[in-house]
C-alpha cells in the first residue's frame, strides 16, 4: 500500500522527532500507530535509516509486539480472550460462532473491513469468563446470545460485523 504525501510528511516529522532519543524506536512506533492507526510497511526503510538498523530489525520489533499492526485497522476491533479460564468457559465456541456469522478470513478480518478478531491471552477478567474487548470495551460472561447482541450493534453502526 502506498503512502499519501500527508502520511509521508507526518512519518518524516515523527522520525525526526524521535531518532535522537535514546531508545526512541518504540516511542516512534507508538506515535506512528497512534496517528495513523498502524505502522505502514512503507515507513520501514526510513525508520531503519534513521535508527541505523536493518529493515529486518525494525520488522522484528514490529512483529514481536503484537499490538503493532502493519495495515489499517478494521472499523471494529474484537479481542477474544484465549487464556485457560476463558477457554474452559467457551471462548472457542464463541470464536467459531463469530467466524460463522461474519465470514472472517484466516487473518481474522471481515471482507468489508468491518471487523477484525485478534486473540489475546488474558484480559484480567478470569472470574468473569469468557471475556472479550470490543472497540476497547470489556464484555464479560459472554455467551452466544450476548455475542449476537454485540454483533448486531456493530451492524447498526454501519459496519458489517
From TrEMBL:
Question: What SUPFAM superfamilies does UniProt report for this protein, alphabetically?
Answer: Thioredoxin-like
CDD domains assigned: TRX_Fd_NuoE_FDH_gamma
Q: Which Gene3D superfamilies match?
A: Glutaredoxin (3.40.30.10), NADH-quinone oxidoreductase subunit E (1.10.10.1590)
Which Pfam family is one of this chain's hits? 2Fe-2S_thioredx
Q: Does the keyword S-adenosyl-L-methionine apply?
A: no
Q: How is the cofactor bound?
A: Binds 1 [2Fe-2S] cluster.
User: Keywords for this entry?
Assistant: 2Fe-2S, Iron, Iron-sulfur, Metal-binding
| Listed cofactors | [2Fe-2S] cluster
Q: Which residues bind [2Fe-2S] cluster?
A: 81, 86, 122, 126
The UniProt GO MF terms for this protein read: 2 iron, 2 sulfur cluster binding; metal ion binding; oxidoreductase activity
- Which family is this protein grouped under? Belongs to the complex I 24 kDa subunit family.
Which PANTHER family would you find in this protein's record?
NADH-QUINONE OXIDOREDUCTASE, E SUBUNIT, POTENTIAL NAD-REDUCING HYDROGENASE SUBUNIT
The name under which this protein is listed is Formate dehydrogenase subunit gamma
Amino acid at each position: 500500500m502506498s503512502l499519501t504525501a500527508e502520511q509521508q510528511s507526518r512519518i518524516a516529522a515523527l522520525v525526526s522527532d524521535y531518532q535522537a532519543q535514546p531508545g526512541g524506536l518504540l516511542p516512534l512506533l507508538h506515535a506512528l500507530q497512534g496517528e495513523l492507526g498502524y505502522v505502514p510497511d512503507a515507513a520501514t526503510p526510513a525508520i531503519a535509516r534513521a535508527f541505523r538498523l536493518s529493515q529486518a530489525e525494525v520488522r522484528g520489533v514490529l512483529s514481536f509486539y503484537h499490538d503493532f499492526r502493519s495495515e489499517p485497522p478494521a472499523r471494529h476491533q474484537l479481542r477474544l480472550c484465549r487464556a485457560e479460564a476463558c477457554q474452559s468457559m467457551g471462548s472457542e465456541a464463541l470464536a467459531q460462532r463469530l467466524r460463522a456469522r461474519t465470514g472472517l478470513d484466516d487473518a481474522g478480518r471481515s471482507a468489508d473491513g468491518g471487523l477484525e478478531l485478534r486473540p489475546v491471552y488474558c484480559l484480567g477478567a478470569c472470574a468473569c469468563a469468557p471475556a472479550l474487548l470490543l472497540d476497547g470495551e470489556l464484555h464479560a460472561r459472554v455467551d452466544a446470545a450476548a455475542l449476537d447482541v454485540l454483533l448486531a450493534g456493530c451492524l447498526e453502526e454501519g459496519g458489517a460485523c
